[in-house]
Amino acid sequence: MKRIAFLSLALIIALSVVLAGCSKPASKGAAETKGKEKDGQKVLTIARSGDVLGFDVHNHGTTSTESVHVNMFNYLVKKDRDGKFQPDLAVSWENLNPTTWRFKLREGVKFHNGDPFTAADVKYSLERVAKDAKLVEYGNYKQIKEVNIVDDRTVDVITNEAEPVLLSRLSRLGSSMLPSKYIKEKGFDEFLKNPVGTGPYKFSEWIRDDRVTLVKNNDYFGEKGKWDKLVFRSIPEEATRVSELLTGGVDMAVQIPPTDMKRINNLDSTQTLSGPSTRVMMLALRTTSGPTADPRVREAIDLAINKKALISSLFEGDGKETLTPIIPGIFGAKPDLFGKSNYNPERAKQLLKEAGYEKGLTISFTGSVGKSLKDKETSELIAAMLEEVGIKVKLEILESSKFNDKRNAGTTGDMFLVAYSNSMFDAALLYKRLNPDTGYNNPEVTKLLSDAEKNMNPGEREKNYQQVQDILAKERPQIYLLQLGANYGINKRINFTPRIDEITYADEITLK
Question: Domain map of the chain by residue range?
């Protein structure tokens, strides 16, 4: 009966994909934002899988929110498509000693409200995220001890210890520059309602769970924006995103299901683009209480999951099994853990018996919809696979923002599904979520990560991270499932090349 239940759910998922292709066309109202020009303006409309989490650049950890923020705010340093550091608000930098980095700031930069950008804004921005433990990005910036103002155009960033990846930290989400004078005068709540940055586009409107609208900043210090208006629409349902693209309601849509790509490519006006990503889908398991505190139960969950079936049935074969979150190409990767799986349902049943659950057990499982490609369907299929070995699942599927709230509050139950990308391109980044997500505390792992974080010797750092991966692959506080690809659908009127970091810079998208 359990196998029948599993096959039935797989059939339901397959039918839902087929029915998604029969969705009703987009409404007339949805299509009103599209077109090469509207009222003489160049408008770019992008369909995303979820809404922004807000405009506190330090208090989120999601690529989708950052894809809006990068068009409004600037970092000190940015990375190009090849991963090389380029000037942004800092025009030059040097490492004076292992704990001191000096940055020379760009002149003539103004925030959207007219305030000049100065060293005081750097000090405020970086010290805020480095000192407030309640902020989501605190763990990635607490390495900064203080920022010393040398003059209005020069700052020294002082770290607690040697900091080998500071430039990487300062070129990713969590490091955007905030307007200190504006926030001091108006308060942070007012900033969140009317955010102000230095970027090529400025805030116009946010209709929660519907859209964010930005307009060109004519006073931008760099090359002026290529678009008069940007519209980021929130459309969690995959079928609706595809329908909006096909009917011209949007110019670009993210997270295109593999099953819809042929349909998009069959139209004269639309096409799909695919690229690799650093995003790895994984399960985070509570290690401090409940049945998943037992490593035998965690191993049984891992062995019960047929990753090949997940990839073939939900992703049309577009995915790669993995036993590590650090994919090849990311610093610290251990290639012999990539491209592998531990599927063994009979051994999973034996482990449950050894753990005292011969008659089965029940776990709570939190999943999301619209947070990553096929997240809802993946959660459902995993739940069915676990049922096959005797693990009953209480599955809760939440919309993206509610899922994030629950994850950050630590109330997701025994296990949750998430897909993390690596915006730092360094193993250091992903392990910041290990303890908050799972409660996992292994002194050996803690020491290895601490040593790697301050080690200026790349070879030694790499070995530290590889040792961590070996330990985690055995102890399984997280169960790594697959590396996801990135699929986009676009109107053929635009030029777009996917980035491996999945960030959407509007000015990298042009009209043909």
Answer: 27-55+63-70+191-275+487-511, 77-186, 277-484
User: Residue 155 pairs with which residues in a beta bridge?
Assistant: 103, 149
Q: Give the closest residue to 105 by CA, choosing from 82, 131, 125.
A: 125
Structural contact between residues 285 and 299, judged by C-beta atoms closer than 8 angstroms: no
Instruction: Say if 27-55+63-70+191-275+487-511 and 277-484 have the same CATH topology.
Output: no
Residue 459 CB neighbour total at 10 angstroms: 8
Sign of CA dihedral 312, 279, 379, 302: positive
Buried b (16+ CB within 10 A) or exposed e, 12-43: ebeeebeebeebeebeeebbebbbeeeeeebb
Correct CATH for 77-186 of 2.40.40.20, 2.60.40.10, 3.90.76.10, 3.40.50.150: 3.90.76.10
Buried b (16+ CB within 10 A) or exposed e, 465-484: bbbbbeebbeebbbbbbbbb
| Cα distances (angstroms) measured from residue 488 to each of 14, 242, 497 | 21, 10, 10
- Rounded to whole angstroms, what are the CA distances from 498 to 277, 335, 372, 504? 9, 24, 16, 8
Residue 39: pLDDT band with limits 50, 70, 90? low
φ, ψ for residue 352 (rounded to 5)? -65, -40
Contact 271, 492 (CB under 8 A): yes
Tokens of residue 200, six digits = 């090529």
What percentage of the chain carries pLDDT values higher than 70? 92
CATH topology of domain 27-55+63-70+191-275+487-511: D-Maltodextrin-Binding Protein; domain 2 (3.40.190)
Q: How far apart are CA 158 and CA 166, in angstroms?
A: 10
Each residue of 11-35: pLDDT tens digit?
333 333 333 333 333 333 333 344 4
Helix (H, G, I), strand (E, B), or coil: what is residue 29? helix
